[in-house]
Write a structure and sequence with these properties.
Blueprint: E1 4-7, E2 10-13, E3 18-24, H1 26-31, E4 34-40, E5 47-53, E6 59-61, E7 69-74, E8 79-84, E9 93-100, E10 107-108, E11 112-117
Parallel strand pairs: 2-11
Antiparallel strand pairs: 1-3, 3-8, 4-5, 4-9, 5-6, 7-8, 9-10, 9-11
Length: 118
Amino acid sequence: QEQLVESGGGLVQAGDSLRLSCAASGRTFSRLVAMGWFRQAPGKEREFVAGITWSDDRTSYRDSVKGRFTISRDNAKSTVYLQMNSLRFADTAVYYCAGSQGSGYEYWGQGTQVTVSS
């Protein structure tokens, strides 16, 4: 069964850092063309946070996290990371990783909670 598993969430203070990890099963990882991180805060819609493409490692970010968050991948570990620095209260959300085979994001993880106290 294909799956993505996130980890690394937690409770931190504003200004702190966290690194989220998303591990994919081997078959899933090899079929992907891109992966991304999304988040959903209580009462809000899920929103795109960052993405990375396999072909050229091109990255993209939502404006509010540019300069603070970095997405990266480790092919040997079939894992994608989201390094989050200078966290803000507004970053509080459940963070999901997602994988794409080219037609949107077909695979989703179960989510990991990030809570930033002000």
